[in-house]
TrEMBL record:
SUPFAM superfamilies: FMN-binding split barrel
InterPro entries: F420H2_bilvrd_red/Heme_oxyg, Pyridox_Oxase_N, Split_barrel_FMN-bd
Renumbered residue ranges of the record's region Disordered: 1-21
Keywords, in A-Z order: Oxidoreductase
Domain of life: Bacteria
Domain (Pyridoxamine 5'-phosphate oxidase N-terminal): residue spans on this chain: 25-125
GO molecular function terms noted in the UniProt entry: coenzyme F420 binding; oxidoreductase activity, acting on the CH-CH group of donors
A GO CC term attached to the entry: cytosol
Any one Pfam family match given in the protein's UniProt record, by short name: PNPOx_N
Protein name as annotated: Nitroimidazol reductase NimA-like FMN-containing flavoprotein (Pyridoxamine 5'-phosphate oxidase superfamily)
Length: 168
């Protein structure tokens, strides 16, 4: 994203009468501050695959990494469309967030250096990666890094209930 604000729409069908749309700044902050995300991809035979992971918000997108031989890497090689979700995991409070987009490989080593530093700031020294050959390298070996810029995002606020869609 180039700093452009999304079109924001409150879906009144699924929102309380007194609800207001969740501002994008609040949703973006929730995406940045979350510790755990759920990545949904599609296997080559069409079956879904969902897995928890950690990620960082940087430069208008979520970044995550995965080992070269992992299921999510194989799925994304075939179909880069995915969704990342995170939230309060509660019925009556908080905001759940969904970000839909395309997982594009991030290989520029200057960018990867900034993303690697974002991992350390967010998750601590145990998540320090070396950057070389267009990838992260750590105790688990080589990890591919993906950038998911939002195409569509949703915020599901509770108390009052409000379903907000963001179109980029």
């Amino acid at each position: 994203m180039t700093g452009q604000e999304p079109v924001t729409e409150l879906d009144r069908r699924y929102s309380a009468e007194d609800a207001a749309p969740t501002p994008w700044a609040e949703a973006r902050a929730g995406l940045a501050e979350a510790e755990v995300y759920w990545l949904s991809t599609v296997r080559g035979d069409g079956r879904p695959h969902v897995t928890p992971l950690i990620a960082v918000w940087a430069e208008g997108a979520l970044y995550f990494c995965t080992g070269v031989g992992e299921r999510k890497a194989a799925n994304l090689a075939d179909n880069p469309c995915c969704a990342l979700t995170t939230g309060a995991n509660a019925l009556r409070e908080g905001v759940d967030l969904v970000l839909e987009g395309r997982a594009e490989p991030a290989t520029d080593e200057t960018l990867l250096g900034r993303v690697a530093e974002a991992y350390v700031r967010k998750y601590g020294e145990g998540w320090r990666f070396a950057v070389r050959d267009g990838a992260f390298h750590g105790e688990g070996g080589r990890a591919l890094v993906y950038r998911v810029a939002p195409v569509t995002a949703f915020a599901f606020a509770k108390g009052p209930y409000a379903q907000t869609r963001y179109r980029f």
